[in-house]
């Protein structure tokens, strides 16, 4: 048998043993870019724990005054850690052509712990390598917002902090695309959902994949 046969055979075995697409990529040097000179959002310290693409809708109800008021959001969260170093990263929220993106979880709103209002949740408990880990979620509260530097048609960039859960201590929403309601509405009209995408950066996670506890 030729040496090249052995190399080919060994590569085939290696390919069987290890997945060709890694489950996640090193993001220890990933830099979250905030607009120059803005002071609304504080720069996070340290490396992110997760970098996610959110694809979903922002919901609005029509107030008696005839303007739309935020009624939360619902989105699927995709792992984009393996795109951080690639040219696709900057515009991934624009490109619906999704490379090997892994669904990590969901983003949605629940009644706030105080019982009044609603709070955002990021939840990895039903998908991927954190599936079944009861701690793989975070319920958060807004700290600050920044109008999108790409224009008022996009929902604000946000800084949030954890209220409960181990998935993150800090969360940022950046690079938002769309999601704003029309300027006015007819009082009594139904809730509307406006499509949006954004990046979500989660910092300070202490969760470990299910089975590693
Ligand atoms: C940021 O501020 C500096 C100093 O005031 C200024 O020279 C620079 O042009 C500003 N950059 C942007 C992007 O506004
Ligand atoms: C937002 O609207 C979607 C339908 O577009 C719905 O599935 C979801 O439950 C709504 N979420 C909230 C918080 O109202």
TrEMBL record:
**Pfam family for this entry, one:** DUF3455
Q: Where is the signal peptide?
A: 1-17
Which of UniProt's keywords are assigned here? Signal
Name of the protein in its database record: Malate dehydrogenase
């Amino acid at each position: 048998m030729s040496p090249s046969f052995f190399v080919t055979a060994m590569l085939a075995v290696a390919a069987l043993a290890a997945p060709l697409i890694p489950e996640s990529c090193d993001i220890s040097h990933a830099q979250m870019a905030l607009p120059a000179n803005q002071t609304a959002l504080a720069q996070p310290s340290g490396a992110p724990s997760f970098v996610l693409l959110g694809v979903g809708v922002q919901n609005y109800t029509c107030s008696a005054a005839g303007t739309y008021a935020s009624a939360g959001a619902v989105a699927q969260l995709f792992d984009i850690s393996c795109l951080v170093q690639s040219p696709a990263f900057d515009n991934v929220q624009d490109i619906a052509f999704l490379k090997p993106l892994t669904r990590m979880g969901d983003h949605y709103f629940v009644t706030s712990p105080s019982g009044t209002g609603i709070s955002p949740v990021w939840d990895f408990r039903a998908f991927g390598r954190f599936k079944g880990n009861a701690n793989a979620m975070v319920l958060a509260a807004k700290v600050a917002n920044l109008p999108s530097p790409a224009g008022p048609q996009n929902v604000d960039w946000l800084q949030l902090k954890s209220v409960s859960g181990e998935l993150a201590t800090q969360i940022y929403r950046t690079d938002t695309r769309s999601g704003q309601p029309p300027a006015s509405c007819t009082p009594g009209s139904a809730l509307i959902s406006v499509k949006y995408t954004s990046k979500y950066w989660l910092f300070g996670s202490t969760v470990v994949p299910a089975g590693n506890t």
